[in-house]
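During the reporting period the student researcher (J.K.) took over the structure-prediction task from the postdoctoral fellow and processed the backlog of single-chain submissions. One of the processed entries is reproduced below for the supervisory committee.
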Amino acid sequence: QLVESGGGLVQAGGSLRLSCATSGRTFSNYVMGWFRQAPGKEREFVAAIGWAAGNAYYADSVKGRFTISRDNNKNTVYLQMDSLKTEDTAVYFCAASSRSYVPISLVGYLVWGQGTQVTVSS
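J.K. obtained the following structure tokens:
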């Protein structure tokens, strides 16, 4: 029910925009998050956005480079990734939470997409 797209191969310093489309639920009622998992590492929080697009949260490692946004009319959440670094290479997942606050950890997100690969080359 969550389908990510937009991943790919990009050179360091480049940009990508990930999309996560939802279906079968009232999208505007859910907090949406992006997470990533690099090979051999645990899945980690990247960014999250509440029901109102104004409240967004970021991991320190991506703050100032990534921007999360949502379009409730299109049932889609986006992750604009600029100034990409090789350490951003990972599988990126979107997730949905019905919590009354914006979780910034894996706990609280019950619905997950399958992920999209982002590879940043040097």
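The committee noted the following: The mean pLDDT is 93.
J.K. will present the remaining backlog at the next meeting.
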